[in-house]
């Protein structure tokens, strides 16, 4: 049952806390509590979405060398029990989201609708599947801002969407399973994926550089430029890992973003260094 919830992927919901950091609200207890509650809500919502996705994908998962071990595909949990758990999680999460703010509940419900649409249809259409998953991350970022009642920054939306798209393209490159097992109607050519990653990766770095220089809520001495090297290292490291895994022979590998972050120490250090430098630049150097 725990594996069915995919708790390791809850790390993705850290995006909800981005607004708390960049809106200079870390020192506001009410904002910290609201953000923590919002993150918990999205952990429940995302787990409910994963269960629905596993229910829909169970026939294909049983033929996949790794996904066949997922609880529903492996027959460890009955579909009816899983569906009941998913509905309960989604319902409780939407109800609990009202305790944060009514507007936050609307955003949470929108995320649920997108999750259902992705599981039922969008994931089977190349490009649209990437856009849908990217949209999930953008909604998380919006939810974090609404939870603490701060304006939704265009920079937050732009950077969240680009970074998410880069990671998702890398994920598609690292899973060379046949199209039918991935549930796609068409395949992603590896050359196209690598080219798209280059374009989006450059856009990520350039956009972050512009953000560090132009964003109005940052220190006027441009101290946030100190975080740019960590972003560049993270992008290059992730691109390197996707290239290595994507061309590896032997058993198929699914390099999920959460697993990559936890298992690869250089990437983990880059992310930790970026987070630490952000705190220093935004709160201490001031």
In a few lines, what is going on in this structure?
By secondary structure, the protein is mostly helical. 69% of the residues lie in helices and 0% in strands.
Keywords:
2 domains; 0% strand; Tetracycline Repressor, domain 2; mainly alpha; 286 residues
What does this structure look like?
The longest helix is centred in the N-terminal third of the chain and has 33 residues, at 29-61. The protein has helices at 2-5, 18-22, 29-61, 79-100, 102-120, 128-147, 154-173, 179-182, 190-214, 228-246, 257-263, 265-284. It has 2 domains: 1-152, Orthogonal Bundle (Tetracycline Repressor, domain 2), CATH 1.10.357.140; 154-286. It is an all-alpha fold and 286 residues long. The protein has 12 helices and no strands. Helix 6 runs antiparallel to helix 7 (154-173), helix 7 (154-173) runs parallel beside helix 10 and helix 9 (190-214) packs antiparallel against helix 10 (228-246).
């Amino acid at each position: 049952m725990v594996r069915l919830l995919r708790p390791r992927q809850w790390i993705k919901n850290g995006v909800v806390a981005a607004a708390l950091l960049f809106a200079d609200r870390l020192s506001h207890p009410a904002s910290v509590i609201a953000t923590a509650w919002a993150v918990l809500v999205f952990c429940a919502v995302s787990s409910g979405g994963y269960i629905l996705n596993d229910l829909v994908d169970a026939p294909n998962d049983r033929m996949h060398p790794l996904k066949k071990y997922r609880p529903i595909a492996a027959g460890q949990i009955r579909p009816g029990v899983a569906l009941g758990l998913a509905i309960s999680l989604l319902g409780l999460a939407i109800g609990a989201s009202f305790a944060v703010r009514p507007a936050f509940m609307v955003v949470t419900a929108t995320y649920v609708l997108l999750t259902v649409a992705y599981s039922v249809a969008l994931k089977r259409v190349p490009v649209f599947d990437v856009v849908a998953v990217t949209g999930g991350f953008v909604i998380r970022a919006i939810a974090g801002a609404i939870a603490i009642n701060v304006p939704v920054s265009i920079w937050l939306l732009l950077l969240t969407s680009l970074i998410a798209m880069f990671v998702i393209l890398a994920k598609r490159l690292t899973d060379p399973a046949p199209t039918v097992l991935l549930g796609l109607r068409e395949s992603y050519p590896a050359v196209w994926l690598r080219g798209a990653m280059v374009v989006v990766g450059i856009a990520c770095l350039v956009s972050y550089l512009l953000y560090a220089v132009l964003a109005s809520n940052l220190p006027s001495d441009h101290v946030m430029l100190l975080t740019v090297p960590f972003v560049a290292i993270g992008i290059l490291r992730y691109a390197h890992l996707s290239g290595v895994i994507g061309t590896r022979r032997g058993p198929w590998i699914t390099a999920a973003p959460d697993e990559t972050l936890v298992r690869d120490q250089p990437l983990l250090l880059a992310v930790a260094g970026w987070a630490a430098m952000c705190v220093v630049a935004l709160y201490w150097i001031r």
